[in-house]
Fold these 4 entries.
Entry 1:
Amino acid sequence: MNLALQPGPDLHEPLHPDLVGAQRPTGLRPEIALSWERSARNGVERDGVDVARGPGSDRPSRLLRAAEPVIQRLAQRLEGEPLVIILADAEARVVVRRAGREDVRDWCDRLLIVPGSRLAEEVIGTNAVGCAVEERRPFVVAGGEHYRENLRLFSARAVPVRHPVSGVIKGALALACRTEDGSVLMLPLVEEAAARIEARLGDDTTRQERLLLDRFLQTTRRSAAAVVCLNRDLLISNTLAGPLVSPADQPFLWDWASRVLAARDEYCGELRLAGDVVVQARCTTVREEEVVAGILIEMRPHSATLRCAGRTVRPHRPAGPSDDSPVPGRSAAAERVRRELAAVAQARRPILISGEPGTGKAFLARHLHERDGATGSVTVLETGQCRDDPRAWFERLRAGLAVQGTLVLRQIDELPVELASRAVGLVERVDGRMVRVIATARLADSDDGMTRLRDCFPARLQLPPLRQRAEDVADIARVLVRDLADRSPPPRLEPATLQNFMGQVWPGNVRELRAVLSSALLRSARRDIAIEHLPPEYRAAPIKHRLTSLQRVEREALLNALDDSGGNKQAAAELLGIARSTLYRKIRILGIDGRCLSG
């Protein structure tokens, strides 16, 4: 074969973490240098040799069906050559490995490049398969360009494999060899084979997808409405739906439709879309006998009426979030918070903002100060510090109440009960025209000695936890990315990522979501955020299916009982008045795991 592949530079010195992002290693192609930076940031060790292994989680059966004949023909063509064919799934995990010679197979075994091995960039550093999946484009890594030193004699060319309809990355196909055996023929060979696999993926369109497409075509021929057909992996829309929805809205639409159709095959009602657009929607399940293909949604302008199951649905327009709203989201809970926020903002009376840690209490306190347009500064007092030095803390409290602006008492739950009465006297005498007093607390009500202090705050605002408004997660995530990103337009959150977010439990609420997105932005290196850019523990959503409203209430009751009992399942079952076996069954069905518990 024509040996024309040249090894990369032989770099032995590890990349110091302090240089990541500030100084790229010299002597490498720009795309390789950027991958080295990501590898160092992910903590990959240059002298490491282990490779993570596992069965995978995205069930690549369709990818295998499409790829097996193509790989078989390619393997026959390359028999006797010092090459190895590698097919990896969307997580860069090896699904198939076919070597042209026995010595090459044994060599790959020693490098732990075997079925089940995960070759993701964040696991083993710069390599062709991991980089092709990470960057979603063909990638070549030769010799010393590998981040790990034990791979310096290895070279590969990899091409991502996409679903021809959805464009979603399904995996990557690579040809690899010892660096001295490299050939310029490898790239056209692997590109041709990847294209054949993608074509076979298109031919392997399932019965469900055909049913969904047929229903979409039937509906668009007879309807003047905006029409959307979707399932978990596919979204089809007509021209009228184009201005209303985008692929990024798929997770929200699927979540909403799955909930409203939980116990029926048809639903008519209002649907709030992005940009404060409210439409009348008719939502139906697409099925043939027992085969459920997906969901069809017909949307009409807000002024229109819909005929649904023999009845006329007349719209009413609720208030919606504006572009500058501090409470993004489309749920009833988000709408309630916006209404209450507008109400308390107009009064100068003391305000109590309650909610779990991370729900955004301090953020809304600052928003209320800025919304007033009042002069003066924001003074924040941590009530937990009162226990250490009560005299100094009360002096700061008196000083804050005497200065024009806003005084925020954070976590008044932590104020010692014996000192609460002193705080009550000071807060009750405050001049609301000069200073606005805002307190935050984890619980809105209590039977302990803090009740009287809470009564000093006639205006109340309670923030729901993120797990109770999963339909808002996509909107909140997009706002957070916009705030965190250092460029415009900000990176896009891929639909699969948003779908994953809507299935997470988020025990740390918005604060936790913000931290995950901040980490993902670093991993994505300014590109769109995919699932593989999330921290590993967030790549598989623990809730595998959407819950009905009743199931969500039941799930919340179980979480509260588990929290009150410190995670003791027997005690939680007794609190709920159910058998322990019933508790275990519901924990499994409702997608509850250990991260939901605060105890």
Entry 2:
Amino acid sequence: MLAWRKAFGKDEGHVMRKMLQNMKLMKKLILLLIVFVVIPTLVLDLVVAKKLESITEEQVGTALLQLVRGSHLTLDRESSDFEEKTEKIMISQEIQQLVSVPSSSEYERFEIFKALDKYLNNYSTNAVRYSLFFSDKDKLYSFVPNSDLLNNGVFYSTDMTDLSWYKAVSQAKGKGIIRVIDKFGYNPNNTQTVAYLRQLNSIYNGETVIGYLVVSGIETPLQMDFVPFDKYKDAQILLLDPDNTVLATNTEAFGIGSKIGIPQGKEEGVYKQLDNGEEIMSVIHTSEITATKLLMRVPVESIIIDHISVQRLVDWIMLIYFLILILASMYFIQSILKPISRLARITNSYHPGKPLAIAMHAESKNEIVLLSNHFIRMTNRLNQTIYDQYELELKHKEVELSILHTQINPHLLYNTLESVYWHTLMEGAAESAEMIKDLSLIMRIGLSKGKLLIPVMEEINHAEAYIRLQLFRYEYAFKAHWEIDEEAKRFLMPKVILQPIIENAILHGIKNMSQDGELWIKVKHTNGKIMISVEDNGYRSADIAMLNAILQGKESNKGFGIINVQKRIQLHFGEGFGLQYASREDQGVRAWIEIPAVSDETDWK
């Protein structure tokens, strides 16, 4: 598996390298800008932004924690102020004399009620109201309105346990507590308020309970101490009791008396949490004096608003920078890469011998223009050289073909052979006459009225005549098999190229095999080509490598006949065609010729 992965990695790397090598220069420039400019800049901007954001959050969180602590200290002083006032009320003569009030008439009780009510009004304001609650099991003060009718005052209750806050105040044993209670007076909506509650005890006998003091509406002065937080947009300030009940707040999102969820162990410090998909920073401080908690909840986005503004400015600068970079790149591409790309396309479309369809530019010091003009001059010189070379090659081919045909065609006269044939036939030597006729056929096809290419059928007739002569010569010591594709007979081929190959097969392969020698001559037309093969079953091993080396010109002064055939084929049809040798599967040698299927000499020129 490891080896497979290494091989896969190498192949993938090779593909990437090859793709980069084949990529156009313009695409390489764009890739270079993206990889080494755009991506590093964006990554650096993202990393720096995140780091600055984290530092900003940490520093702001620390500063907010100090602010919350300071504000909470102010709130504690506010609570201490209520404690001092209630202490003063508790030890006042007006309250303490109630311990030993003798039984009196209703008029005297009314006067006591008025005096107490007047005394409390000195402390009450529009926001903060002071009230006193006394037990009246005997209903001596039934003439006094209850707390359902008045916002504040002196109230008498026949059963103190009916009051929701009574139990908590009693358990405090004279210590002031802050609790959320229902507002006094007409309150159809059950509106709640925050009250400072305290049990009033006798200063002479601490166990004697005189009554209960309730200072309601203290959320108003408490909330006035939230002013330092106003500069933080969307900040929510909450004063909580030990049970996380809201005592005072600056937001309508949390009403007085509502409960707030605080994560376990988050009683002091800074933490973040998600609220309806929005990241909120919470700063909390718990007072050791009042056991209350001051919680500040502010969206992180509000905290880092200045950082976001700076980041947006940086983003705009980067955008402008990238636009300038793109414009500069476009200018570079327009002035340099585009002319080079155009020159590359012209170079790719250029075919030697064909003039370019562009004109030379006016002389300029621009290197691209100079390069383009030099390329046009070079192609013109190359075209002229090609034309000159083409004319020389045509003349050279004509001379070489004439020499080659002169070497292989004996200068016998066809008419003389015809006369000898008829004379021999009249004398009764039929076999000799047939030999002369075959020789005449060979000479007639060899001359072919000066033609260089003849139909395949004529070449086959020539080869058949030659084989008949050789059969007579060697007393029919071998057999010849023919397999000719009818469709191939109409195409043209160089004349007299089968005879030398057949001659080699007879002389070097089967002439001494005493009736066991065989020849196979096959001609086929396939895929626009003519395939001609000559095979023998000769028992003598042949040096195939040497034969092919001779055909490739690697061995000189050998194999004149097959070199002659190879050169004539390639002079007519090019180096992609010609003669080849191979060993047969059983024994013997196989020679095959591959030429194009042409029916007219002009089709290949």
Entry 3:
Amino acid sequence: MATKKINQPNSNKDINYYKKKFWRVFAYTLLGILAFFLFASWGLFGSMPSFEDLENPDSNLATEIISSDGVVIGKYFKTNRSQLKYSDLPKNLVDALVATEDARFYEHSGIDGRGTLRAAFSLGTNGGASTLTQQLAKQLFHRGGSSFLPFRIVQKIKEWIIAIRLERQYTKNEILAMYCNVYDFGNYAVGVSSAAQTYFSKDPKDLTIDESAILVGMFNNSSLYNPLRNPTGVKNRRDVVLGQMVKAKMITEAQKEKYKAMPIALKFKLESHREGTATYFREYLRDYMKKWVAENKKPDGSDYDIYKDGLKIYTTIDSRMQLHAEEAVSEHMKNLQQQFFIEQKTNKNAPFVNISQAETDRLMMQAMKNSTRWAIMKDLDKSEDDIIASFKVKTKMRVFTWKGERDTVMTPLDSIRYFKHFLQSGLMAMEPQTGNIKAWVGGINYKYFQYDHVGQGARQVGSTFKPFVYATAIEQLNMSPCDSILDGPFMIHKGRHNVTADWEPRNSDNRYRGMVTLKQGLANSINTISAKLIDRVGPEAVVELTHKLGVKTEIPAQPSIALGAVDITVEDMVAAYGTFANQGVYVKPQFLSRIENKSGEVIYEPIPESHDVLNKDIAFAVIKLLQGVTETGSGARLRTQGGGSGDNRWTGYPYMFKNAIAGKTGTTQNQSDGWFMGMVPNLVTGVWVGCEDRSARFKSLTYGQGATAALPIWGYFMKLCYADPGLQVSKSEFERPANLSIKVDCYSAPKVKDTTATEQNTDEFEL
């Protein structure tokens, strides 16, 4: 007993000692953990996002090109990522994501304590513990994971800290939206918006439950669960997501079974710069944006990056009208191309017509030197002889055809000649009152033919130049569409108007009509009439007016310009004709409405440019002249259904338009270029058709003239526009100025005596 009494105090002392030691160790450990978290939050273990970073995370967003009707028609990106608001996400996708990835998302504050303890006690074998907020933190601020355990622990702690900060900074809905915007779904699709377009060709709001389940399944591992490479695995993962939705009571068991029975149905469409809608316009815009970013800086003085700053470029292009224009070009060009190939079968130097072997060799050599093959071999220090020899060796390649791409074997030299066979086209449509460009088609296929025939390529305009001569004559000489002039042989002698040799223009049909009105002269595109008018006003006056109309080309002050021996772009021609439709006021074509940053703030808004060129009366007189072209002249087939020579190549014929149309066809020497300029009161459209090389052409006017080569595109395009009531393309008359001072109603029918009355009636009609 005595011994026990003696040992008791020591025993108590030992217990107290261990208690103190335990609490000391516990306190030090707790302080160490707190210090560790504190040091991590201060960035001692690697940089941490600041308050500003959390407010504006570097989300590497694609710049979106948006049409006037609100459709994203293209993007500029290195990473194809688009930003969505929570309201843009379909509820079924949000439900599937929460049910599968973070069932207690709405309960925790960034870290799921229960899930963390479960993962710790099971050593990760019973599922991970990362919340959606932690996954977002990892995606935004340190994507890579270290294989070294201490580093991995540091990264996990940093994730926790960032997750807590994100929860304080954003609402749950904002966190969900951010997470859906940053995940990489593969195939260049980052974010739900891009993934929905890439895999299903639809907007996120239109995703069905099973499609949402597929995308949510990909959140687990987009490389493993890629629908293109692993459809079986994707189906199994989708079914797991559907099961989680049943468990969370978001769908019923019956719904789950219904969706499980459905196959994986994709509408895969890889978004690229070379495909999709308005490819030529998007490239033109990209070029413009390169200059824009050099002149417009961010508030902090740094440069905008169109590939990752998430700008929104609002354009004037109407996506519906653009699709109609692309369809019209495609349908007519594939039709006309058949005829071109038929003609070239008997041409030993196809597609070139009436040129020497030396000129042919020059064109082919120039094409070789402009090719990618030449550039690559030149960089490899190959000799010119070796490079030329390589163009004569057969190789496998993929070529463009109007029936789709085709794999074949041919020499690169033969492929150059093959591609030179293709007829090209350029189309631009614009609202004359605003200058807003509504459609832009720069060629037949951007992937294979990058040259833009709207804004980049100027070609001879032929008779479409004549209205500028007539407008000058009406303004300078006070003439009217009803004034008469003699169609007969005419010559401008050497020395007059700086001509270096006698110039005697001839009519395309080699005949003369005698006395005709100006309206008849333009309707029938009579060359002698245009020549006589430019002789009277002088070519300098015509050049001056043409430049006022917005044509930027340098034009020689020579009488021959009256017949269209001038190179002008489709864009400038549309702007010039638009001046007539806009009562004599030139409005510079514009393709931008505004540019916003990723926060939706307007950072640029263009100021429209316009100036007066002609008074209303003269502009209207020119419109009446141009209406004569579609009533009785070279554009009359827009109103007929009788057909004629080559009518099987008038795509979309008969057109049977009955509304007011002002227009002008144009055909250059040897049928190298075919044009049609067509106008209704609120839409001016220019169309050009021709081959890349002017020596590649139709042999006759039947198919090479503007009325056959270009006019059908306009007719087809307008039929589609009129069938689309949402576009509101006008069928009204052109606005007639009040107190019109120029006579435009030219002829009166003979007076017929009414036997039942003494009064005689006069009916006026226009030619």
Entry 4:
Amino acid sequence: MKEPRSHDNAAAVHAHAGERATRPPEPWLDYGHLLPGITAAIRADDCSAVFIVGDSGLGASSLLAQLGSVFGGEVAVVPIHGSPSLTAVPYGVLAPFLAHLSLADISSRVAVLRSLWDHLEGIRVGTGPALLLVDDAHYLDDATCAMLTELVQAGWAKVVAACVPRPGVPAPLLRMWHEGTAEWFDLEPLTAEQGHELCEALLGGIVLNSTSHGFWTEAGGNTLLLKTLVREAESSGTLVQRHGVWLKTAATPVHTVKLEAVVKLQLMRISAAGREALNLIALAEPVDETLINVVAGEAAVQELLDQHLIKPGGNGLPNLRLVNPVYGEVLRSIVPAAQSLQLHRQLISRMDVLEDNPDSLLRMVTWSLDCGADVPDRLLIRAAVLSARLLQSETALRMASAVRDVQWQSIAQAVLARSYFNLGRRDEAAAALAQETVDGDAGPSQVVSSSVLRAATRAAVGQSASLIRAEAEILREWGEQQPGLDGQRTPAAQAAVTLAATVIGLLAGSVDGDYKRMGPELERVLLQSGTVEGSLAPLFRGLALALKAEMMCALGRGRQARLLVLEAAALAQPQENDVFFIPEFISARLVICALAVGDWADAQNLLDRYYESSGVSMATYGGAAYVVAGYIAIRQGKTGDALPLLTAGLEALRDSDPQNLFGLCAAMAFYAAAGAGLPEAERFRADFKAWGQHSTHLLAAQANSFFDAGLELLNADGSGVEALHQNADDAAKENATYLELHALELALGLGDTSRLDRFCETAAATEGEWAQSLAEYGRALKFGGAARYLSAGEKLQAATAYHLAAKAYGLALAAPDRGQTKELSAVARAGLAHCNEELGQGSEETQNESVVPKLTKREWDIVNLAVQGLSDRQIADTLLISVRTVEGHLYRCYSKLGITGRDELAGAAAVAQGASSTG
């Protein structure tokens, strides 16, 4: 006898959205590795049955339907559907095949067997056995199970039976698995990636990762629930398509009767005691298992565990919770208020609210508010801060608004400001901050910390430097009006006021880029932060370290900056500081440093790691992730990949922009679209213009340069290059070499070689692999030679700047001295092939195009006139265009031809024309 075989495969969804213009029908689920295994098992001579086991809603019915389509032309396919109403009826599910039998015959096993044989013979396809597809096999009666087993043993049929884990496969069928003649496949909940693919398949377009992740989380990976949630959100108008991107416009789920029906259908197998226990867990989750056993009974709890409706709460605690959030949301919405209050009183007296357990704290505070029960302001504030940090903004607003004690009003207002900001309601966030004033009755430490944290919040929500500096002035005035600071209060308290005002000024300096003034002030704060009392010391030092890192990053010392941010992140901050953006303030600068030095993978890992550790898992898939991925794609020259990422990012950031990335995202999208000549560029330009100043100078300066480069790509009149030169000059005034290099690199990419010496010096003075590879590239352009171009190509390729590496390799192959060694040409060609493959240009034709770029007709007109010796003004008059347009086109031609100026133009043009004529 063969050993039983089992396959534990996840139900994978690979339904691709494609670029379909119309909505596809409800997609089949392509079960990836699972479906081929099942089809192979069905076709195997030694396999007579296949069991597909998984919880209700994981897609077993869809899988059976797909199997019917696969085998429909090969063998007779017979669908059989189990039903709870027919469980006690012998042969009940076989009634469609036994309609001609009398009542007496139905009680005869032989008559039933003969009738089924006649039916199978009547629909026979080919010579193989029929395929019986049995859905909900756990509902089959014993007589039917025995009959199906007999059909299989006689070789008349094979069975594919789908059922839930409990009660599981009926015993008569299960014997085939124990005998080794059956295969077993487990269906598992969808992974986050599979959930995203299913959402895109359902909607037929791009879906924000944050949107699909929200649906997947709410459904707990359950396929049926996820599909129901998507369709429900679409029909209710909370799921909309904007600029080709699907996203949710409302944080609060809107559930319909249809969803309630789906949930009730999946819960119909449990007893009355089990339902009461389920309601209690839904209202209180996560709840202590021992307590719920006492209140609801161990048998009811075990029933829910057996039915896979509840699971351990995690975190190493003996807690229970529902298997997916949507069960809880629907159950809480249908439990009558009186019953909810009764259960609340029944349970709350027996349990302690676990303040250190975020899930327990949030659920109990929310439940208490729902019931109208009193909640201490201390717990309200703790829960509100936690909700704001987890981006549960509507819940945070509700909790903060319920706070009454004056002692907690400062933090409550900050929660309101942050929550409004998270929801994209900037005006209301500003209004909440405006209500805050220095509380004269508060102690000096509380006044100081509140002022600094409020200023940090102002910076985080994108308010101007002048508003932030005004916060410092208010604090200074308060300090001057407190004579007790010189006597009754300690000198440390007096020093804290001065130091706090300095920190607030530094926050303003971050916004307007006043790096020269920031340097000495940062050193003073770092030197004196240890002299202040209590929680102020880590607050001041953490902010100062992060701000110094930001400044050093702008000054081109990104690797040193990263060490400072890591030191800031290691400082233990008071828990209430979470709501004031302090963790994000630090983590954002860590990602920025990684991007500045060219550590692309590290930047993405840091972003994911922060959100995983902070509990804001959904934000991992939000706008920031799209911006980081789009930024990296542009740096690598993959603008075609960057544009859809940035388009999706803009739509995510349009509603919620916790890191003030909208302007940078819009500028990069404009740059990418303008370079591709797409009409969407105008929309992105309007987005950038409407953005305003809502960011740190470090990000805003990069955004401005991307935008100016996009203008040059769009207009080709030289004005964009001129603006980039001005940006570089402005950065140089503050010694911001990274920002200077950013502007010069974009100008060089547009063909401007007028500042090549400065480009080389600035790149060499900037830390990081990306900058150093640019320095090598600049020197190669300056001095020429195949060996230099090859070295630059290798360094650029190592830095994953594939577009520039491809250009350098092409210049190496086109250099007059390239034939000195065959080895050099071979290395250059191999490098060029790799870069073209990375850029999606793997064919030989596109590789040749990288070596000898094509010029447009207008560019050839201008080049030919320039070769004839005409000046820029003469060319402009001849072609009836502006001088700036001529300059812009010439800059591009220099870049495409790999030269630095007019003196090399004649030779390069001749090579290009010869190559194009032979090609």
